[in-house]
What we know:
Helix 26 (631-665) packs parallel to helix 28 (696-717). Strands 1, 2, 3, 4, 5 and 6 form a six-stranded antiparallel beta sheet that branches. Strands 8, 9, 10, 11 and 12 form a five-stranded antiparallel beta sheet that branches. Strands 7-13 form a two-stranded parallel ribbon. The chain is α+β, with helices and mostly antiparallel strands. The chain is 62% helix and 9% strand. It is built from 30 helices and 13 strands. The two termini are 33 Å apart.
Amino acid sequence: xxxxxxxxxxxxxxxxxxxxxxxxxxxxxxxxxxxxxxxxxxxxxxxxxxxxxxxxxxxxxxxxxxxxxxxxxxxxxxxxxxxxxxxxxxxxxxxxxxxxxxxxxxxxxxxxxxxxxxxxxxxxxxxxxxxxxxxxxxxxxxxxxxxxxxxxxxxxxxxxxxxxxxxxxxxxxxxxxxxxxxxxxxxxxxxxxxxxxxxxxxxxxxxxxxxxxxxxxxxxxxxxxxxxxxxxxxxxxxxxxxxxxxxxxxxxxxxxxxxxxxxxxxxxxxxxxxxxxxxxxxxxxxxxxxxxxxxxxxxxxxxxxxxxxxxxxxxxxxxxxxxxxxxxxxxxxxxxxxxxxxxxxxxxxxxxxxxxxxxxxxxxxxxxxxxxxxxxxxxxxxxxxxxxxxxxxxxxxxxxxxxxxxxxxxxxxxxxxxxxxxxxxxxxxxxxxxxxxxxxxxxxxxxxxxxxxxxxxxxxxxxxxxxxxxxxxxxxxxxxxxxxxxxxxxxxxxxxxxxxxxxxxxxxxxxxxxxxxxxxxxxxxxxxxxxxxxxxxxxxxxxxxxxxxxxxxxxxxxxxxxxxxxxxxxxxxxxxxxxxxxxxxxxxxxxxxxxxxxxxxxxxxxxxxxxxxxxxxxxxxxxxxxxxxxxxxxxxxxxxxxxxxxxxxxxxxxxxxxxxxxxxxxxxxxxxxxxxxxxxxxxxxxxxxxxxxxxxxxxxxxxxxxxxxxxxxxxxxxxxxxxxxxxxxxxxxxxxxxxxxxxxxxxxxxxxxxxxxxxxxxxxxxxxxxxxxxxxxxxxxxxxxxxxxx
Length: 790
């Protein structure tokens, strides 16, 4: 082994280990990317109980798939639903159908032991206010009504209809009804069978998505064949995750392939040789390989959007190789071999790497797990690509291996023409126009941190979701009340206090209703008060029950047996006892149980609108242990706070980078940073002029623009003379390759990545155009760079 090539061999061994590790991950299927979009959101800065509440709500819906099969005729609807379920029934390992059509009836014996204390708030108020004759007439009406059949309990077990009214109120919380052993909902003539599926696999598993989505499509086709005029509506997290995953996979392919083809074309036009293309692709490949392998070791899961963002890394990873090859052109005339050339270029290459990695790692300071992963992936990719250039290019790129093409002369001529504009009056006009446009654009730039702007699900999923939300009247998962108490009893009493404030809002139709555990399990205080009230008003020796018996001609024996039966149905009910029944399935997600500092629960709301959020926030005001939670508003506020935070990080980063540059360029270091600052201002102005709202991901892209733009300034600064076009050639190649990557990223359907790519696209063009306008002629000569001091 040649000692001069020892470094290349050592690096080759390391790359082989990375290749083996990546092959192992692929063979063991451990590289299956994560598609959970929540990984892009910030880690919530909230107390543990609130975090548990949000996680509980999310978990209750994550593994659900709701399907509505509808037609104008009930028999057609049943036939279509049977055909749909027949396709999915054999695949119980993927999903299973929940049968809730008879869940209440199955638990009638348990509920029957507590029916005396289960009544609506309106009936409780009526017991306090209405005279005895009201209840006697009500009982007689129930007894002799021609529609008295089909009751939940015999008349003598609920003569005053308190339990029946309570059950009717619980049924009114949803539009879903049992029918012929199925769940059913209707709208006009349209009748739907409601099928609630529970997934047996993770909703974010790409392998599960690839298996399940074709099955759902096959089931939908079977339903339409059974009822050609029917329709199928679907809602579930897995549908959105699958759509996002498919979109991201397509974008990885397009961005990656587009970047590679674009860079290959650039290298060919510059050097007219396949060898430089192979060398550049080698450094890019090692960069991506190293980033993939080490990221998996650090995070154990790689988000799919990290791969989409990482595909844009290709444009930045080639900077170091193209800079080396461009300098190889002039090194031929200076009789320098590749190792001597590397020693000369090493300070500039190192400074370029450090400043760019600093830009990426600054993104890791944000609380976004997905964004942290993207930053680490990109930084590692650049480091591995840089090491490949340092270790391999001196051994691979021999003297005479790189020759210039006509593109080099074109770059030299364009540099002369561009720099000559500085001495002309038109540059002053251009500068004045730039200032006016920048001021105008910045004055029009507004700020929007709404998290909903970062979501772009397919339209058909949104349409299904809106229609199903109207049909099912389901509670809103994004807004709710979090109720806490030191004991279960305190918790239930605080829920009841909150509901007393919400009842007027329901009556005024400000909200559609609410769901809470205390609807099913009143506090012990309320249970005792209701028993006492019924005993006094209805069951007393001279109460309504005794008078009712005389009216219907029943004797004292009937009165005693009925009274005993009603009293026996007044046993105390606890949340734990209720949660053990099938009837609790629809409200289990509302009960958090024991938490730090006591117990907690959720009160969910129906029919919430943006215009009425202020009323809901006020409803919790002054109630001990009650907190209004708006997850959309909370996450949006976090985005806004970190947007401002990252703005200050960018300002401080400019100072940090200036210190790094000052150690090499002294007082002229500002010439490297000035183009980036102007380009950032131009980018913000363009966003304002085009009506874009500034958000966190625009600011994060400006942070990265600082790291990338410094490379251009360094390359140009080390080659200031017009007779030496290497700096301009390097800047041009780097900028064009970055444009290929981030230009394609700006076409992403993911709003966060689109904002990032668009900002980088505008900023890169601006930096590339502004860099030559700064005079480097008076600075130190080429070939005499100051030693790097980090």
